[in-house]
Amino acid sequence: MNGLKGIGGNVYNGTLGIMSLMAPFFIGMALAEERKVDALAAGLLSVAAFMTVTPYSVGEAYAVGANWLGGANIISGIIIGLVVAEMFTFIVRRNWVIRLPDSVPASVSRSFSALIPGFIILSIMGIIAWALANYGSNFHQIIMDTISTPLASLGSVVGWAYVLFVPLLWFFGIHGSLALTALDSGIMTPWALENIAIYQQFGSVDAALEAGKTFHVWAKPMLDSYIFLGGSGATLGLIIAIFLASRRADYRQVAKLALPSGIFQINEPILFGLPIIMNPVMFIPFILVQPILAAITLIAYYLGIIPPITNIAPWTMPTGLGAFFNTNGSVAALLVALFNLGVATLIYLPFVVVANKAQNAIEQEESEEEIANALKF
């Protein structure tokens, strides 16, 4: 088992352990591509800029601390990627570059065209790093102190905001998870990475707690495991409720089509097919089901029934399995996830019945009063 942990630790160090180093590269490259300038050069310069402002000392050793490269520092990486890409665009558009004759191969010309922008950008970053070092600090630490740490102290606020607003945005046709990706990738995913780092360091949750360490409750995989069951609004529960309570052929057909993707946490077929979006009958359960599941999950966590998140399984993991793998094999986590799915199904059941009655009344061209009566529980 220790050998497997060692292998897993090495894989972690080479992937999630350098998340903050990868962020500036991909963000800088994507923004540069949007600005129609050399995306690869901007991405590489973003990584170079990140390392330029990173302290190269751990105690008396000349080395880069792993704490600057992991998920806890990802906001710093995002900022550097955005800033460097904009600086690179600014310089290139003013033609402050070396132009070689057309006879020179494109790959060589491309390399030379990035020399002056790279010199300017990295010189500025070097001056910033030098100035901050004279004051006993560094760029990453300032970002952590001014942005990351205050946000971390708002853990429950961030979590509840995400749980409430993702389905609300979806109801009006806005991709909630994408709209709030800053909370996801910028805050809750780094919390998960911090949990994993603590677990890797101490080998178990109990050992970490005994050492005085704390785990983030609102790590992103927690939401995927216990709340977003089948996607935003826990719509896998709605699909099951339709199979249990609906006699309408169209509802059941949509549920059949949506089930395969719903099992893997993708719910666009049910959102647009039923539809849920702009459907007043489904507004109440779609908005309320996630806060209810979040409350159940938090109660289970604080009662010690389920352990904290100590792994990041793919968010497309089926309900139950995601919780099992995200907690490194907790059967209790799997059972709580399945319990939450049952709760979601019960929440949706009466609304499926009402929606069927209302649809039948509309198709029979009944009066507005009769349709209103059909909407009553």
Automatic annotation (TrEMBL):
Matches recorded under InterPro entries: PTS_EIIC, PTS_EIIC_3, PTS_IIC_cello, PTS_Sugar-EIIC/EIIB
Keywords noted in UniProt: Cell membrane, Membrane, Sugar transport, Transmembrane, Transmembrane helix, Transport
Entry's Gene Ontology BP terms: N,N'-diacetylchitobiose import; phosphoenolpyruvate-dependent sugar phosphotransferase system
Subcellular location: Cell membrane
GO cellular component: plasma membrane
GO MF annotation, one: protein-N(PI)-phosphohistidine-sugar phosphotransferase activity
Domain PTS EIIC type-3, residue spans: 1-351
Chloroplast keyword on record: no
TM stretches of this protein: 12-32, 39-58, 70-92, 112-133, 153-172, 226-245, 284-309, 329-354
Membrane topology: Multi-pass membrane protein
PANTHER family: PTHR33989, PTS SYSTEM N,N'-DIACETYLCHITOBIOSE-SPECIFIC EIIC COMPONENT (PTHR33989:SF4)
Name of the molecule in the record: PTS system N,N'-diacetylchitobiose-specific transporter subunit IIC
Natural source organism: Citrobacter koseri (Citrobacter diversus)
